[in-house]
Amino acid sequence: MENTRTTNTTHDTITYNVALRMKYEQRCEDCGESDFVEDHACGDLICRSCGRVAESHVIDEGSEWRTFGDKDKEGADPNRVGGPTNVLLRDGGLSTMISGGKGVDKGLATNLQRMQARTDNTGQDKALVMAFRDISRVCSAMKLPDVVRHQANEYFRDALEKSKAAKTRAQSAVIAAVVFLACRQTGYPRTFKEIRAYVPQARVKDIGRIYKAIVSDLKLKEQGEFRSEVVSIHPENFLRRFMSTVGFTNVEMMSAIALANVAKPKHDSVDAHQAWHGKSPITMAGTIMWIMSQLMQETDTRKKPSLQDICAVCGVAEQTVCNLLKEMKPQLGVLMHEAGMTCSQEDVAKISCDVYPKV
Fold first, then answer.
1. pTM, full prediction
2. For 250-268, how does the pLDDT look when each residue is reduced to its tens digit (9 = 90+)?
3. Residue 119: is it exposed, middle or buried by C-beta count within 10 angstroms (0-12/13-18/19+)?
């Protein structure tokens, strides 16, 4: 069979070359020259000497496909291009769908569709395709990179097979949970409230419960040293994004990140554990932003962000930030000194939650 296929390919190539030679070796009826050029945009064969259109609407008899491997092989590469296969689906995403059309007997089309449905074992794939479409919509709305979307698709497929919570809970909450998990694993962490803003059907409590259930059922650990472990979140992961929203400069962002790394080292030891180390990284990020806002210089074109603005961006309560600031206040001067920040004791003493009283 291989020899037959090779013979057919060779025959087609020879036929194409003969037709091409005859097209360009003909003589012009006006000037008698045999020098032609083909205008591929219009499909015309034009004489170079006098400009006469020898042929119009020329059909390109070459291969309808195009691959960059043609130059490395003899003749055209018959491999056609198409959509990539999806390894997460059983059929690779290349299943056949039977549908009716004009001139087709409706009864015959219905019978064919019914017979295909009886022998079709891709019911789960259809559910996956719909879920993947929703995950893609959420990631696109949140402007997340493709690596997050691919990771979320993989987690959803695994959760659907191994996690009971993914089967019994609402699919919107499961989608939000796998997107949250994928964001953590790929280094683009988002909060539950940020994801919930794009999946309004799911509640924050449901997203959190399903997330914990998926981590438990998939046997993922809260360490982050290996791919099968959930990456731990640090305040640094949120500071740059949150601070740029409320108008901090790049220098202030770097100082805030240095302060966060000193206040909460990424690899905490037992001896260096502080009272605030168990707090939420989002709360700590909001507290550090509030500290930096009181140290920044206010100008005519730039005003200090208020505590209400910072809490709105971080999605935390004002009282939560104030409570954490009270716990950090006794050692705040030492932490800022270790972070390389030049602040006097008077400046540190002025840092509190009473600078901008509520109206």
1. 0.65
2. 999 999 999 999 888 876 5
3. exposed
